[in-house]
Amino acid sequence: xxxxxxxxxxxxxxxxxxxxxxxxxxxxxxxxxxxxxxxxxxxxxxxxxxxxxxxxxxxxxxxxxxxxxxxxxxxxxxxxxxxxxxxxxxxxxxxxxxxxxxxxxxxxxxxxxxxxxxxxxxxxxxxxxxxxxxxxxxxxxxxxxxxxxxxxxxxxxxxxxxxxxxxxxxxxxxxxxxxxxxxxxxxxxxxxxxxxxxxxxxxxxxxxxxxxxxxxxxxxxxxxxxxxxxxxxxxxxxxxxxxxxxxxxxxxxxxxxxxxxxxxxxxxxxxxxxxxxxxxxxxxxxxxxxxxxxxxxxxxxxxxxxxxxxxxxxxxxxxxxxxxxxxxxxxxxxxxxxxxxxxxxxxxxxxxxxxxxxxxxxxxxxxxxxxxxx
Length: 374
Description:
Layout: E1 16-20, E2 57-59, E3 64-71, E4 74-82, E5 91-97, E6 105-108, H1 109-112, E7 123-124, E8 128-131, E9 135-138, E10 142-144, E11 147-154, E12 160-170, E13 179-187, E14 196-203, E15 206-216, E16 228-232, E17 241-242, H2 246-249, E18 257-258, E19 262-263, E20 266-267, E21 271-277, E22 288-294, E23 300-302, E24 305-310, E25 313-316, E26 320-323, E27 327-336, H3 349-352
Parallel strand pairs: 6-13
Antiparallel strand pairs: 1-12, 2-12, 3-11, 4-9, 4-10, 4-12, 5-6, 5-11, 7-8, 8-9, 13-27, 14-24, 15-22, 15-23, 15-27, 16-17, 16-24, 18-19, 20-21, 21-22, 25-26
Protein name: DUF2961 family protein
Pfam families: DUF2961 (PF11175)
Region (Disordered): 21-47, 343-374
């Protein structure tokens, strides 16, 4: 994937821009702002059509909503979307290319936008921007040759309201562009003496372009000595690319520890640790982190196969490494020469769940605890 810059922005191209939102569900020419009913109809009752009658959609509990269905060749160039923080780990974002039955993207909503813990973190990167308070933006180019379908599944027990806009182009030649894939995998907790799998079993030619990890620490001490490994093509027991440590891969050093400040958040165009969640002395007992690494200037190319994993290592006595059993949820991003790939099983609501805090404990006095009555 070439790095976009301003040198080509002035070039004239015979392309068309379209956009899908609740105000124009199919992106049709002249189709925007025509709604006569929607979530804003009551607010616009004095104004009528054209005055924000359909700015959002409600997705019922357990249902899947089609954000966008596009026919023909094109490329998604920008996605903006927002909903309440409570929904960031209960929504599954998917994308299907060229009529495929299996999704190329299947990632929890918040994780796709580098906010995997359901707590807002500002992200200032080239391809993902997360802005106050939960305005999520993706600039990952997503080309397709025959069509595209983007969906959101609500895995929770409550209805969810979302606002969104999907911008795309048509009229170009996308025959030599790879299909964008995003896969989510969680180890909670990580198995004993087993690396966390970021992606495995991918076949075909392509290039790996990014990693986001929501890392929850389950013990005291430093947790980021583990190496990330990229097994390319014929690699079996040993990888072609082997990193030197977790904080090194994400562009930091020396425990992300600025003396006198401790763990220090940072967000740059290509890498960052924008989120550090510290214990609160009550229900939030462990530290949690959010980190991203975009391989935009340094994509990792493979011709036949791809596997990526990362270790979780700390320290024990005698300056020995200590294998850890942390909560690690990773999102792997890559382009591939085909619209589908082997992927992890679809996560359940329990697989997605984040335990960040407990609800207030009721004062029940001597009343015995019993299950709620139906």
